[in-house]
Amino acid sequence: MRLLERVAGHAHGAPAKQLARETGLALPTAYHLLRTLVHEGYLRREKGLFFLGEAAERLAAGGAQQKRRSTVIDALACWRDTIGVPVYYAMYRDGDIHVMCVSDTPGNPAVEEWADFRETGHAHAIGQCLLSQLDEEARRDHLDRYPVQPVTPYTVGDDHSLLKRLERARRMEPVVERQEYALGTVCAAIPITLGTTAATMAISLPAQDADRLLSAVRQLQQEVGRHLGSLAISISI
């Protein structure tokens, strides 16, 4: 690991003798370890100089992605505690709805995914918010693959009714659904558009607390707006 760290510190590469001296390793040991790291793809050797290899670069990329995910998780946890509701982050990617992170507590649990979120996007606020950000062709393609079906007695009745609702959705306005996905639960989602990425942050509440829903989602929208610049790279992953 010390050898990898030292190689990473030399943008133009470094010879074995220099790396051995900098790490305090005996030269034969350094040679042996460097050969092993080259063999495993963590280093590459060019004209007697050692550089990071593809395997090390994959490790670095994975670490960066974990850090970005941690940034989002920390933000959701902060908003969860500030507003006192479960907070969700989801994206529409490769033709599907992906719930990326959920932050809740035992006292304020998230909605149980009792029906596949990807297949029931028409029924929950997350799905409706993401679909409202797509163009008409992409919406119809989604509904061809995941047609409207009853989830609760309050679920939208058919494709036509859903499409009309999505067309009426106002840009940057919260999307609200009341017991359409889960009886006893109301949800609201706010759209987040980053370039061509359709994303959303959402909250849920027990139906008896429905009078809090709009004020809570507005508070979330303000929090996201204040931090969106610093989160933009992280939430687009």
TrEMBL record:
InterPro entries: GAF-like_dom_sf, HTH_MetabolicPath_Reg, Tscrpt_reg_IclR_C, Tscrpt_reg_IclR_N, WH-like_DNA-bd_sf, WH_DNA-bd_sf. The keyword Transcription applies. Pfam families: HTH_IclR, IclR_C. Transmembrane segments: none annotated. Residues 1-54 form the HTH iclR-type domain. Residues 48-237 form the IclR-ED domain. Keywords: DNA-binding, Transcription, Transcription regulation. This is Transcriptional regulator.
